[in-house]
Amino acid sequence: MCCALYCCIFGRFISYGGKFMENIENSSKSKSKSKSKSKSKLSILTLLIFAAISGVLWRVEVQLNGWEGLKWISYFHWAIPIGIILFALWLAVFSGVSDKGKRLWLGGLFLLSSIPLYILVFLSFSFFFVAGPSAFAMVANFGVPLFSLLNLSILFIYPSLLVLGWFTAKRFGLPMSWVIYLLSAAVFLGAFPLAIFFIAIAEKRIDPDAIHAIKTGYVFPFMMIGLGIPFIPPENSID
């Protein structure tokens, strides 16, 4: 009888112990899930803030140097390197790459690649918006076929930046889904239409077109957000 009583007590002890460990495990999972959600929200918030800052800095710089005409295309915009640094900082600190060293490497890699990419995008945009006597001079120098290719090069280069971002996110171990692909593509490729839409609503004295999407700075936050979406930490990530 004593043996049976001992076995009963021991069995209850094991049962309670198992439930206690299960509660600890569930609590740990809950805390981990809560932490990953907080990290994801912080990443999104900082991305939105940095994107907004980049657009505001561009607009302030244009306003300070004179809004009239095409003066804004005649000088270097310091808002560009500042925006690049902000995005690199976001990648290095707030992106979803779990390893801190890899996050720093990701931010550094973006800084290094931003110089040739900026030159490539700048030239392609310049060819795309060229018109008037400059366009005739370029046709005379390059010929119609080459000029047409250069004129439309931005239509290939611009989407390639997004594809490069997708590839980089995947290489750094971030989970990619069709939702991420579609959302980032919608924001990044739709940056100009979205900027034009906001100009039409908020800027009654400014023509809502692609040139003013750049001049006003509205396009840059959407570009940064679109590029950043694949690097946002998933809510189920665990560091």
Strand and helix map with partners:
Elements: H1 2-65, H2 79-94, H3 100-129, H4 133-142, H5 144-151, H6 154-171, H7 178-189, H8 191-202, H9 210-215, H10 219-228
Helix pairs in contact: 1-2, 1-10, 2-3, 3-6, 4-5, 6-7, 7-10, 8-10
Structure characterization notes:
The chain is mostly helical and 239 residues long. The chain has one domain (37-231). It is 78% helix and 0% strand. The chain is built from ten helices and no strands. The protein has helices spanning 2-65, 79-94, 100-129, 133-142, 144-151, 154-171, 178-189, 191-202, 210-215, 219-228. α7 runs antiparallel to α10. The longest helix is centred in the first third of the chain and has 64 residues, at 2-65. The termini are far apart. Mean pLDDT is 83; it is low at 1-32.
Please describe the structure with a list of short key phrases separated by commas or semicolons.
10 helices, 239 residues, mainly alpha, globular
Contiguous low-pLDDT stretches (5 residues minimum) are 1-32
Please bin the fraction of helical residues: over 70%
What is the multimeric organization of the chains shown?
A: single chain
Determine the number of helices (DSSP H or I, runs of at least 4 residues): 10
For the record, the count of structural domains works out to 1
Give the N-terminus to C-terminus distance in angstroms: 52 Å
Strand segment tally = 0
Instruction: Describe the main β-sheet briefly.
Output: none
Strand content: under 5%
- Overall morphology: globular
CA-based gyration radius: 26 Å
Broad structural category: mainly alpha
Q: What series of H and E elements makes up the topology? A: HHHHHHHHHH
